[in-house]
């Protein structure tokens, strides 16, 4: 990095993450329960993905948001059941879902394989996202999120 403009932008970003947000995201601003925070992050990710789907594009972002929403929804359920989820890697959350009784080992293995083969392919490697893939992973994320909300009977979901 030799550009002074780049270094200034980097310093601004570093500084921004050291400060308390001046205009925090609505719905997340006063949440102190870590499980509810994960649930509401999933709500926001699904809302953003739905918005992008309606605009017919940005499939890579939709796929990424949907996979992260799946993880956040599972994390919410696991934390609600009293399990510690600190420090897990992306695919470990599926094992925690089995341990907490959210789904079977077979479903966890399929979710994990879907993540490994497709999220990683779409985001990090040479895979190109498309509408059908984006819609189906978004539908899966919404279904899993809705079932998680129903199972826990939480009133903290921000989805409409």
From TrEMBL:
DUF8154 domain location, by residue?
1-159
Please name one Pfam family that this protein belongs to: DUF8154
Domain of life per record: Archaea
- Per its record, how is this protein called by name? DUF8154 domain-containing protein
């Amino acid at each position: 990095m030799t550009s002074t403009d780049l270094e200034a932008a980097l310093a601004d970003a570093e500084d921004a993450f050291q400060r308390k947000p001046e205009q925090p995201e609505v719905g997340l601003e006063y949440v102190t329960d870590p499980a509810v925070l994960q649930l509401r992050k999933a709500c926001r990710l699904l809302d953003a993905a739905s918005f992008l789907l309606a605009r017919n594009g940005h499939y890579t972002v939709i796929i990424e948001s949907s996979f992260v929403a799946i993880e956040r929804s599972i994390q919410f359920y696991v934390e609600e059941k009293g399990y510690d989820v600190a420090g897990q890697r992306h695919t470990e959350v599926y094992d925690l879902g089995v341990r907490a009784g959210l789904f079977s080992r077979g479903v966890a293995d399929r979710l994990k394989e879907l993540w490994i083969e497709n999220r990683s392919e779409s985001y990090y490697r040479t895979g190109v996202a498309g509408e059908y893939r984006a819609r189906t992973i978004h539908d899966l994320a919404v279904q899993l999120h809705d079932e998680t909300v129903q199972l826990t009977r939480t009133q903290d979901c921000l989805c409409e």
